[in-house]
Amino acid sequence: PAAMKAALGENPKVCYGDRDIYPSTRMANAALLRETLQKAKNYDASNGFNADLEAMLPVLRREIPLKVHAHRADDILTAIRIAKEFQIDITLDHCTEGHLIKEYIKESGFPAIVGTDLTSKNKIEVENMSFKTCGELNKAGVLTAITTDHPVALIQYLPICAGLSVRAGLSMEEGYKSITINAARICRVEHRVGSLEAGKDADIAIFDGNPMDTFTNTLYTIIDGVIVYRKEE
Question: Is the torsion defined by CA of 145, 132, 172, 143 positive or negative?
């Protein structure tokens, strides 16, 4: 198990509001998340097994984080507030307006998985979407990674998203980290992947240039120490 997923904002509003069922507002969605965490906190399996609440226990024990889908600044702050109330770990996924409240995110100590910015502004909550978000958060001291939110933008465009973030202000080194070791740290698998170190999984890609450059070719892909792709083949 890697994480538990939660969502704030327009997605749950549309998903449930279009069917005229609860929760159909931001307030109701936050209330339901709090209610679920409180029920899990009070849960006693000896009084009857509940699979839904059992699944939340690793979150309350901080064994896995709650991955909170949040674009707008108020949704991000709601996620932080609830996380602090229940003393759980969260990741701020998308974090589209994070650059508007970077001091609050830095103070929270929670990491941000930014993106995708390689898509249309098809919802009002992403009207402030910008490739500068990752760089501004990173400079503020927030642990940041980049996502394509596959298949919203395809996973193979991840290096391009990193490159566009570098162009918008993220440093080159942090651009590399945003799609390697920082991502691994946020996902709590840095002991296995994310950097080239003895003892880690031998999953390696070798390029003929900067992987964030669109003209760069992949020469070799190695998985578990075995070459599975050669460009010449």
Answer: negative
Instruction: Say whether the peptide bond before residue 151 is cis (omega within 30 degrees of 0).
Output: yes
3-state secondary structure 119-172: CCCCCHHHCCCCCHHHHHHHHCCCCEEECCCCCCCCHHHHHHHHHHHHHCCCCH
Taking the complete model, does pTM exceed 0.90, yes or no?
Answer: yes
DSSP string, 160-203: HHHHHHHHTT--HHHHHHHTTHHHHHHTT-TTTSSS--TTS---
pLDDT at position 127 over 90: yes
Q: How far apart are CA 55 and CA 40, in angstroms?
A: 9
What lies within 8 Å, CB to CB, of 211 at 6+ separation is 159, 205, 218
Which residue in this structure is represented by tokens 């109701």? 28
Distances (CA, A) of 152 to 43, 48, 124: 37, 40, 17
pLDDT value at residue 1: 86
Among residues 122, 62, 58, the alpha carbon closest in space to that of 96 is found at: 122
